[in-house]
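Quick entry between incubations.
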Amino acid sequence: MRPDTLEKAKNHRGFLVAAATVLLSLTMMLLVSACGDSGSSDGSATSPTVTGPLGKLTRLGPAAIEMLDDKSDVTGSENVQVRSAIDINWVRIEQQGENLTFTMDLGGPLPSAMAPSNAAEWGFILDVDGDGVPDWLLYQSNDSTNGWTAGLFNPKTKERLSGAQLPGTASHEGTDIIMTINRATIGSPQTLKWFAYTNVFVKSSTSTEPLQAGDRLPGNAAPDNSANWQVFP
Ligand SMILES: [Ca+2]
Ligand SMILES: [Ca+2]
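Done. Structure below.
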């Protein structure tokens, strides 16, 4: 994090917003630099049984997939809040009519509120034109300043549709994150590539760099390997 960026953010919007923005930016830089040359939600808090093989795509139908992740495979700092709530258990993507629903099940209950200086994010990175470069991030976040927020962010245009502007619905309950958007919102792709991620970060008292931990699916590698993109449907 550049000190001037941090200072501006402290002055104007608070540390957590800055940390979230910078972390998101770092994530996107990783993705863009590394991938640039590469070629049913039930809507309830009840987690359905998912029994597919770890890290392998399971097709539930012509337009529905699931993938299981390892348990307790969060990487990064041990000293973060909600470590279980950022441990991805499984994700599911379903198309129903013109709607796409993204569900993420976590290893622990989602926090109603984050401790001071803590922020967390759960999301899906989407490549809708097949060039291996991220086009959209669909996410929900929770931080001690703003509480829960959902958003759709375009890293190319920097357009961010969040809160009431989100072109869809977002909910979180129990251990599940659920988001639904209209396909037209992201250009009605016939297929898309996706990557699921979580992040939590905490302002450090001893460093300008926040403590950070997170989980990734597929695998637990940094999202910098084009082979990690998964295709939907
Ligand atoms: Ca996991
Ligand atoms: Ca792309």
